[in-house]
Write a structure and sequence with these properties.
It is built from 16 helices and 11 strands. It is an alpha/beta fold and 381 residues long. It has a 7-stranded parallel beta sheet, sandwiched between helices. It has a 4-stranded mixed beta sheet with strand order 9-8-10-11, with helices on one face.
């Protein structure tokens, strides 16, 4: 029985992880559940799965959660520090890092220091602090198992001992793949949230529409698989059947295919190196139509270009990009900026905030704060 701490159990990844746990209740146990604001769903989940511990990060919801679980033997904690504490529980085997954004960094570091297996769905952790995270993981001999469908696909294609010539990171292209630059200036929040393939949370869906999500995945791939930026190529594949590919030095290419269902990479991270039987939909090759591939347009989607630039510069630059992106992503969702202003504000923030080539955790925390404040100052309302 593997005991799992789910950081962000009320989000898209967290709820699907609980589906996997429910299906394989003889193998997995939801030991810790956490949420930031969605206390009502957290209570509902805790009543069903009976974890040992729950954490509601937003302290104003603590009393409500405590009342909602008062008749159950479940420990209830609150605050950001509690997230770092619960992942160090000696009974936790796997930490699913599925919190959204920069907030997932400190709990993930805490889990690595406690030598927990990390099932990583929070891409911002490696984007912001890839050098620090990989160093800590190596020092503590902690495996980081990717949960993102693309990185899970790459992980499944790897051949120990055989060198990678190129990673082919697939992208759906999002809802605006066929929009002109002029059309992109007037797209709406509702249009951006209508992803053609995946059902995800609002933040990652907007990031997919700008292609910043794919840029973050490029940065992740560098740290997860130890390749240089020029060996990571984004390939737009709107059907989302091939989840990513690896090209080896002899020219052979391996691809991982499947239906777009996040439960599969979640389950694989939980069960690795074994595969478990599932009732997930199967890929029917006789029903497939064309599989198409395109180059990404960096002029229409400058966020992808900004992510590549941040990766090339290194240091705290990816942290700056992530902080600015979180601010403008939220501002766009709240109808305070237009779609094209997202990349403009990120670019201005990259130019303004001081660059540091070698960073530690304190530098990342300071950089994140500075970049957020500056990006917010560029938003007029």
């Amino acid at each position: 029985m593997k005991r799992i701490a789910i950081l962000g159990s009320t989000g898209s990844i967290g709820t699907q992880a609980l589906d996997v746990i429910a299906t394989h209740s003889d193998l997995f146990e939801a030991y810790v559940l956490t949420a930031h604001n969605n206390y009502e769903l957290l209570i509902e989940q805790a009543r069903r799965f009976q974890p040992e511990v729950v954490v509601i990060a937003n302290e104003k919801h603590y009393d409500a959660v405590q009342r909602g679980l008062s008749n159950l033997p479940i420990k209830v904690y609150t605050g950001a520090d509690a997230l770092c504490d619960v992942v160090q529980d000696e009974n936790v085997d796997i930490v699913l890092a599925s919190m959204v954004g920069f907030a997932g960094l400190r709990p993930t570091i805490s889990a690595i220091q406690a030598k927990k297996v990390i099932a990583l769905a929070n891409k911002e952790t490696l984007v912001v602090a890839g050098e620090l995270i990989t160093r800590l993981a190596n020092e503590n001999q902690v495996p980081i198992l990717p949960v993102d469908s693309e990185h899970s696909a790459i992980f499944q294609c790897l051949e120990p001992g055989n060198r990678i010539e190129k990673i082919l990171l697939t992208a759906s292209g999002g809802p605006f793949r066929n929009c002109s630059a002029e059309q992109l200036r007037t797209v709406t929040k509702a249009q951006a949230l209508a992803h053609p393939t995946w059902n995800m949370g609002a933040k990652i869906t907007i990031d997919s529409a700008t292609m910043m999500n794919k840029g973050f995945e490029v940065i992740e791939a560098k740290w997860l698989f130890g390749v240089t930026p020029e060996k990571i190529q984004v390939v737009v594949h709107p059907q989302s059947v091939i989840h990513s590919m690896v090209q080896f030095e002899d020219g052979a290419v391996k691809a991982q295919l499947g239906v777009p269902d996040m439960r599969l990479p979640i389950q694989y991270a939980f069960s690795y190196p074994q595969r478990l039987a599932s009732e997930f939909d199967r890929l029917d090759f006789f029903q497939l139509k064309d599989l198409t591939f395109e180059q990404p347009d960096l002029e229409r989607f400058p966020c992808l270009a900004l992510a590549y630039e941040a990766l090339e510069r290194g240091g705290n630059m990816p942290c700056i990009v992530n902080a600015a992106n979180e601010v403008v992503n939220r501002a766009f969702i709240e109808d305070r900026i237009s779609f094209h202003q997202i990349s403009e504000i990120i670019a201005q923030t990259m130019q303004k905030i001081d660059f540091t080539a070698h960073s530690d955790l304190e530098t990342y925390l300071y950089t994140d704060c500075e970049a957020r404040q500056f990006a917010a100052s560029l938003i007029k309302n």
